[in-house]
Amino acid sequence: MPEIDLSPDTVLRLAPNFRTRLDAAGHVLVDSPAGTVVDIGPRGFAILSMFSQPLTLGDAVERLEAELGGSTEFAPTMNVVNMLIEENTLIAAEAGGAPTSGWADPIEHARMLHDDRRTGDFIAAVSAAVRPGDVVLDIGTGSGVLAVALARAGAGRVYAVEASDIAAVAGRVFEANGVTDRVTLVPGWSRQIELPERADLLVAEVIGNEPLEEEILETTLDARRRLLKPEARLVPHALDLLARPLLLPEAEIRQRVFGRAAVERWHDLYRIDFQPLLDVAAVGPVYTVTEGEVVTTWPPAGPPAVLASVDLAAFEEASVRAFTDLVVDPPGRVNAVAVTFRAHLYHGITHTLDPWKWPSSSWATSVWVLPEPVEVGPESALRAYYHRRVAGQPDGLTVEVVDRGVG
């Protein structure tokens, strides 16, 4: 990407295609669009939230000076802002620029509309859930498809919230389909908006390839506390994370991770010791995202199991600590674990991401690849641990082989 010519009047905004996670020390890590990992410290989410709407660099500095000017945090925080700019996570908001990437890219929304199983399931669910005259909060409206469906199904007022530049397109979709009398476009992040009234129904189709990466937990919890009526209905109302052991082909493994066996192989080939390369490599499973059409060609090493279940209408902490024991059948090697989901939408309507059953999906599959394969015998299981926003634990998945029946 081109370098930004910075001045106090430069308008900055968040790039649409980055991912966040926590390390064991509670620091926010950003997987940047530039392909780098940026440690933005324990206040990272507050810094990112400051740029949830376009903001001039000068205004950002003034806000930070007002908040931190008398403390030792000001200089490190400004360093974080500079790093985010350098790694293309904060980008210039071009006046009048067309949406071209991430969730602002029309192609992303076309992919979801082409996915008629996904979109059809959600339309069926929201149409069943809405009641005549309901006030509805639609978070992440995108192209506006669910907001239009809600209006047609009888909603009295739909607040369609969208943070990316595709919001302007959604507004035109509402006009083209004659629902502007019932649908109000609300540009911005749901956690930073206010509504004139609380909603009877929440629709939040903010499930990511890594199911929780689009912060459905944080978003839903905030909406329940500030924007919904006490007995509001939710679509989806529950979410299961599903884990499945895999045995990837060696060619696929080599493109994603390496371990001790690779270093030994290179030594045999080149007579060079590459242990220093291994010393700086990831120790545990490496997170990758792969399209379902590819994943469906990888042989599962066992059946799926529920890794975690979240009741979106009742949970009180936006964190997950869970584990499950994966059966390997037949017993043998495992070198990866896929994490998918089952979304409980409304009254028995569900949507499951399962690339072995439905390989064509607009969702890619989250796969954690092990640096070294593990052997799982007939009396053993592969225990998969999952952490999300847990103090003292890095986000992600780890595994170990355990005896079956051991708690």
Key attributes of the depicted protein:
six-stranded antiparallel β-sheet, single chain, 407 residues, 12 helices, 31% strand, alpha+beta, five-stranded parallel β-sheet
What does it look like?
This protein has 407 residues and is of the alpha+beta class. The chain has helices at residues 44-50, 57-68, 74-86, 106-114, 116-129, 145-152, 167-176, 216-226, 250-254, 260-270, 275-279, 292-295, and strands spanning 11-14, 19-22, 28-31, 37-39, 55-56, 90-92, 135-139, 157-162, 183-187, 199-204, 228-235, 238-246, 286-290, 305-311, 320-326, 332-346, 349-352, 365-376, 380-388, 396-403. The longest helix is centred in the first third of the chain and has 14 residues, at 116-129. It is globular and about 70 Å long.
In short:
The protein has 407 residues and is an alpha+beta fold. Helices cover 27% and strands 31% of the residues. It contains 12 helices and 20 strands.
What's the rounded overall pLDDT mean? 90
The low-pLDDT segments are 95-100
How far the N terminus sits from the C terminus, by CA atoms, comes to: 50 Å
How many individual helices? 12
Task: Report strand %.
Answer: 25-35%
Protein structure class: alpha+beta
Percent helix: 25-40%
- The best one-word shape is globular
Query: Can you count the beta strands?
Result: 20
Largest sheet: 6 strands, antiparallel
Rg = 23 Å
The assembly state of the depicted protein chains is single chain
